């Protein structure tokens, strides 16, 4: 069925966004809201938005008029009886959605699709009380709908395949990529997003680095558009923390999704982030201007660095390519490299290892931890460098490492391009990226979506520079597996256990996109 006419129930931000892209795509849209006057107000707001787009040259006058003609307000629910599909965007409450769908079944014919824009509720549960659960489906958009070009199509256990196909076609006509997601907690995007914030919070709770430093490393070094704490402030702790708790509990306390007590405290204290002027950072007129005063007292102490003369540098690395890259970097800065099998007592020992702290790396390689500073090679050396002294590294060697890596290529660079962190079992970027990629692999193994759909949904829905599967391909599955295996062995924490999907493909040298299709 080609969908020509729809009804939007609930005309808040999400409902208006869906209505806008549908009307622009030539679909007739009936707007209904139980709140008196809300649908009329929504249409007026949409009219103003569309007029602004026209003034900017994004729409022609003809397109403006055509879109407005497709937006029709209805004051009675019974007036939507002839639509091809109904999309509800009401309060995120299971009982309310079930009651609405029961009302709709008494109004619309059995051929009308009933779609829910739920972000966290089970589609199967919403459909459970319906006479025709086969026509109930999830159709989950992201805010702001016109800009977030992704929509999850979620069949419940009884949903007809033809209904899924009809909504994928509608999504395409509206200019969005539709991806099919299994009806599991968080679907694709909200599920995949758990790794980024929860691991960053764990790093902060362990005193590995300040939240500012973690943001800087992941933004400048790893390439995320925003640091995790900046992102939580933007989304709002009042939104993000309940989602963390909900997904953790819906997966029966699976360790991978374990929330953090800090965001619970911030939730209770109403330090929600940008919308209230304080979260992890303080805001003035919506602009970040300083770290939160309350949280600054909880941050780990900054480094007191004594920059001293550099004699030579001895390099220890897990990978030959990392050792070569560091050698080239040091040679370009005219720094002597200690080529001896074991380091000279005056040499800075630079360790490029994965999934371990500098103490463990030094002892494993048989070098003196007092000379050792670890460096994360998972991030781009040109953009940002993360350095990790051991617990007993002498101050002069910490200063030497910082002197080498803090200065950028451009002499006019003012801000340092290196961050010093306390010892951690794996660096900041290593831990966060490994968790993001491992969770994406786990989702593929659970068949929540195809590997390509997981990748596309996360990239478009969360704004990551790569989807988790392609990011794993870029870094290398064996490297990610090494990080996880070492962290898991050293900590025993179940959250770091490597996904079987990742393990098999890393050991076989297969692409992480490889699916097993030859089974009946």
From TrEMBL:
Domain 3-hydroxyacyl-CoA dehydrogenase C-terminal: 186-283, 426-509
Keyword Oxidoreductase: yes
Domain 3-hydroxyacyl-CoA dehydrogenase NAD binding: 5-183
GO molecular function: 3-hydroxybutyryl-CoA dehydrogenase activity
Matching Pfam families: 3HCDH, 3HCDH_N
Origin superkingdom: Bacteria
Keyword line: Oxidoreductase
EC assignment: 1.1.1.157
Protein name: 3-hydroxyacyl-CoA dehydrogenase
Organism: Enhydrobacter aerosaccus
């Amino acid at each position: 069925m080609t969908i020509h006419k729809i009804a939007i129930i609930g005309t808040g931000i999400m409902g208006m966004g869906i209505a806008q892209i549908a009307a622009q795509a030539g679909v007739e849209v009936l707007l209904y809201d139980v709140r008196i006057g809300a649908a009329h107000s929504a249409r007026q707001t949409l009219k103003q938005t569309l007029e602004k787009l026209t003034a900017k040259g994004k729409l022609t006058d003809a397109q403006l008029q055509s879109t407005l003609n497709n937006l029709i307000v209805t004051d009675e629910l019974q007036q939507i009886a002839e639509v091809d599909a109904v999309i509800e965007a009401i309060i995120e409450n299971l009982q309310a959605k079930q009651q609405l769908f029961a009302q709709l079944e008494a109004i619309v014919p059995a051929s009308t699709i009933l779609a829910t824009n739920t972000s966290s509720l089970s589609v199967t549960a919403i459909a459970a009380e319906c006479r025709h659960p086969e026509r109930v489906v999830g159709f989950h958009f992201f805010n702001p709908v016109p800009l977030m070009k992704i929509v999850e199509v979620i069949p419940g256990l009884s949903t007809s395949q033809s209904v899924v196909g009809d909504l994928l076609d509608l999504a395409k006509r509206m200019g969005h990529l539709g991806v099919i997601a299994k009806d599991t907690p968080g679907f694709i995007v909200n599920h995949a997003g758990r790794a980024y914030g929860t691991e960053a919070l764990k790093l902060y709770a362990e005193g590995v680095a300040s939240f500012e430093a973690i943001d800087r490393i992941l933004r400048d070094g790893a390439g995320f558009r925003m640091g995790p704490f900046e992102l939580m402030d933007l989304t709002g702790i009042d939104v993000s923390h309940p989602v963390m708790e909900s997904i953790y509990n819906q997966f029966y306390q699976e360790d991978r999704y374990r929330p953090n007590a800090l965001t619970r405290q911030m939730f209770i204290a109403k330090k929600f982030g940008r919308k209230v002027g304080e979260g992890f950072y303080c805001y003035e007129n919506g602009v970040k201007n300083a770290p939160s005063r309350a949280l600054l007292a909880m941050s780990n102490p900054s480094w007191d660095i004594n920059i001293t003369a550099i004699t030579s540098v001895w390099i220890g690395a897990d990978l030959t390519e990392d050792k070569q890259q560091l050698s080239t970097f040091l040679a370009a800065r005219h720094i002597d490299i200690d080529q001896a099998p074991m380091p000279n007592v005056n040499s800075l020992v630079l360790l490029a290892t994965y999934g371990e702290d500098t103490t463990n790396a030094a002892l494993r390689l048989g070098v003196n931890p007092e000379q050792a500073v670890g460096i994360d090679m998972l991030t781009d050396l040109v953009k940002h460098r993360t350095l990790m002294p051991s617990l007993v590294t002498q101050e002069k060697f910490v200063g030497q490492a910082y002197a080498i890596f803090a200065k950028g290529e451009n002499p006019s660079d003012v801000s340092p391009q290196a961050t010093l962190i306390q010892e951690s079992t794996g660096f900041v970027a290593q831990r966060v990226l490994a968790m993001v990629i491992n969770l994406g692999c786990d989702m593929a193994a659970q068949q929540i979506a195809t590997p390509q759909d997981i990748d596309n949904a996360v990239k478009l829905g969360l704004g990551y520079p790569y989807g988790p599967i392609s990011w794993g391909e870029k870094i290398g599955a064996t490297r990610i597996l090494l990080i996880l295996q070492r962290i898991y062995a050293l900590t025993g924490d179940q959250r770091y256990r490597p996904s079987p999907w990742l393990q098999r493909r890393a050991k076989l040298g297969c692409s992480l996109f490889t699916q097993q299709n030859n089974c009946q």
